[in-house]
Amino acid sequence: MASARDVSSVLPLGASAFHILLSLADGEKHGYNISREVEDATEGNIRLMPGALYRYLKQMVTDGWIVETMASDGEGGRRRYYRLTPWGRRIAEAEAIRLEQLVRMARRCKLLPVRGASV
After folding, report:
1. H helix runs in the chain, sequence order
2. Containing H/E element for 101?
3. What is the largest CA-CA distance in the chain?
4. In Å, what is the CA distance from 90 to each residue of 26, 36, 67, 104?
5. pTM reported for the whole predicted model
6. CA–CA dist 74, 77 (Å, integer)
7. Is residue 14 part of a domain?
8. What is the pLDDT of residues 39-64, one digit of tens each?
9. 65 lies in some domain
10. What's the distance, CA 46 to chain centroid?
11. Which residue among 17, 24, 25, 117 is least packed, with the fewest CB closer than 10 Å?
12. 44: nearest Cα among 52, 57, 35, 56
């Protein structure tokens, strides 16, 4: 695992990985909820099929970005839930800041409209 002080060693994140972390930023979720939230947030542009989603989640658990917990699904079964670790939150925050800086640069270069300006 990378040092908690060296967030830059894991940046930039791929879009799918960042969206998974964003989905978990407001609390613990199970895989299906993560997948649906990512698809909804990206208007269907990112669809995480189960195989890909669980590969990402397994790697993020291994790297210490998220933790997995088990909970009853209310029907006698158990379901895996995932939540951000402090390290995973730092990574997501650092990526959000990096992207925000890129958007500011794009505005300065007139690739995006300046906020509040009429088009």
Report:
1. 15-24, 31-41, 50-62, 86-108
2. helix 86-108
3. 57
4. 14, 24, 14, 21
5. 0.87
6. 7
7. yes
8. 999 999 999 999 999 999 999 999 99
9. yes
10. 12
11. 117
12. 35
Predicted confidence at residue 117, as pLDDT, reads 65
Tokens coding 114: 């300046």
pLDDT computed for residue 79 by the predictor:
87
Give a yes or no: residue 77 inside a domain: yes
Q: In this structure, what token pair is assigned to residue 2? A: 């990378």
- 38 phi, psi to nearest 5 deg: -65, -45
C-alpha angle 41/46/48, rounded to 5°?
105
Residue 24 in any domain: the answer is yes
CATH number at residue 77: 1.10.10.10
The residue type of 79 is R
The total of other beta-carbon atoms located within 10 Å of residue 71's CB is 11
Name 30's bridge partners: 81
Which structural domain range is residue 59 located in? 10-108
Least confident piece of the model among 28-42, 69-83, 84-98: 69-83
The total number of structural domains that make up the chain = 1
Tell the residue number behind the tokens 């989640």, with chain if given.
Answer: 57
Please tell me the predicted confidence (pLDDT) of residue 119: 52
